[in-house]
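re: that chain from earlier
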Amino acid sequence: MCTAGYPKHSKQVRVEGWDASHWIPGPGGCRLWGVEREFVTAERLTAVVRAAFGPGRRLELLQRLRGGSKKGVYRLTFTDGSTAVLYVWSPAENYWPASPDGNGTDHADPFSDASSLDLFETSRELLTTLGVRTPRTYLVDRSRTHYPADIAVVEDVSAQTLEDLLRCDPRAAAPTLDALGAALRAMHRHRSPRTNGPDEPEGPATARGLRPAARCRRGKAGCEGAG
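^ sequence. v structure.
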């Protein structure tokens, strides 16, 4: 395995299916199959913010959040005090890419690679159909005109975790736990004909009275259905 440039505190992790030939040395360390880690910067989000919220919103702070090992997850804080969350599906943000030998790319396999904007949209629409509350989606952009990767801008539900709320004020956490229980029961009642991913809901979101997010598709400079 490549070890060039790794800091002493870094851990070497061996993953089945990958060997030393899959890693190449580069400045400051090793990278996977030519993928260089490049994270989002505030300067590159001007067009994204405008597409999602219009010209009146200004980004003040960009924070990269933990937990997004297959996509980048960022909290956007604006000058008016409001916040949103940015998802970025980019090879540079994916620490668990599909194997270069093709394993994990067959979506009929329940253990296949499962991370994409399409899967995000399908899952969100299915949960909405089941009555499960999901963060509001402000922007879905696969056009690459605003940012060079598939992205989504969604509602920032809360900066506080349920774990923290239970520890600090269990009584105040009761309504949240009730809502979580209702969501879990709704998902438990749903039966899918497939084992690997959510089945497509019938009909578009607008047919069910849902307000569509702004959508940008490749080949179109503008967005349609801005919400």
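The helical segments are 46-53, 117-129, 162-168, 170-189.
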